[in-house]
Write a structure and sequence with these properties.
Blueprint: H1 3-36, H2 45-117, H3 122-146
Length: about 160
């Protein structure tokens, strides 16, 4: 069932209800006019009562509907406020993160620039040089100690 068909049915239902309301209003106005003129018949009294009771029932139903709609609007308003708060918080976090990233990048760029242009300190140079010397001595010692373990390749005649 397409939306156009549903719209037609809804519109037809609205027209039918509007016509019924108009007819009931006309009947009620006629009965009230007869009541004002003191010409209301005893057989018309129950009809007048029925119209008034229908109006009261409709009034009560509409009040319940309005109360429900107001509650819904208030709930949706609170949800909308919470969503706006969450969006503002997310935007603030994104801005903070971007600022932090900019700061990290600036520090890293400075470190890279310093690494390229800076000479190592004496302590850094001494530590690196000492480590290289120790590694060279250890390799030589290991080569010396393991030389007899290296299989010799027999010469081919």
């Amino acid at each position: 069932m397409g939306p156009r068909l549903m719209a037609r049915r809804t519109m037809a239902e609205r027209k039918r209800r509007a016509a019924a309301r108009d007819q009931a209003r006309t009947e009620l106005e006629h009965l009230l006019a007869r009541l004002d003129r003191h010409t209301l018949l005893d057989t018309e009294r129950p009809l007048l009562r029925t119209h008034v009771e229908q109006l009261l029932a409709t009034d009560a139903e509409l009040r319940r509907t309005i109360a429900g709609q107001q509650t819904l609007v208030q709930r949706l308003g609170r949800q909308l406020d919470a969503a706006h708060d969450a969006i503002r918080e997310a935007e603030q976090q994104a801005a903070d993160t971007a600022e932090q990233l900019r700061a990290y990048r600036a520090v890293e760029e400075q470190r890279q620039a310093d690494r390229v242009t800076r000479r190592p300190s004496l302590a850094e140079w001494w530590t690196a040089t000492a480590a290289e010397r120790r590694a060279t001595h250890i390799r030589a010692f290991l080569d010396e100690q393991t030389a007899h373990l290296t299989p010799s390749t027999p010469e081919q005649p």
